Amino acid sequence: MPFGQNAGYARTFSEPEAYSKNHLKKTIDMKTMTCKQLGGACDMPFHATTFEEIAEQSKKHGMQMFKAGDKEHLEAMNKTQELMRTPNAMAKWFENKKKEFENLPDNKL
Ligand SMILES: [Zn+2]
Question: How far does residue 42's CA lie from ligand 1's centre (Å)?
Fold first, then answer.
């Protein structure tokens, strides 16, 4: 509990410190994976604290590339769609990538 019952009182004094601590923690806990590592086609890096977050970022990026008609990303997406035809293949892929993500070292400042 960062803010107790004296929150209003404490906040006046400790907010800048609390902010920088949270910010620091966030930066340290983040991990990086590239579009390619996540089944895409480029070296665009994504940063997140959980695999679900990074998967979401990569998905959004993939959609943008799809709309832009980027050939390499379209090919990468075709491969993913082929994978999805095999039962459980996508779940396994997700599971493997999640492990890969969790084994990554946290970002260094
Ligand atoms: Zn990409």
Answer: 4
Q: What is the pTM of this model?
A: 0.69
Distance 10 CA to ligand 1 centre (A): 45
In tens, the pLDDT along 9-20 reads 544 554 555 555
Q: pLDDT digit string (tens) for 44-97?
A: 999 999 999 999 999 999 999 999 999 999 999 999 889 889 989 989 999 999
DSSP state of 38: G
**Distance from the alpha carbon of residue 47 to the mean position of ligand 1, in angstroms:** 14
18 CA distance to ligand 1 centroid (A)? Answer: 35
Tell me, in angstroms, the distance from the centre of ligand 1 to residue 74's CA: 10
